[in-house]
Amino acid sequence: MAAQVIVGQDEITIELSGWNALPSLRRIIRIPLAAIRSIRTDQLPESESLSAIASVAGPLTGVRTGSVVHDGRRVFLAYRPGASTVTLEIDREHFPEVDYDSVVLGVDPSSVELAEPDAP
Question: What pLDDT is recorded for position 5?
Answer without folding.
Answer: 82
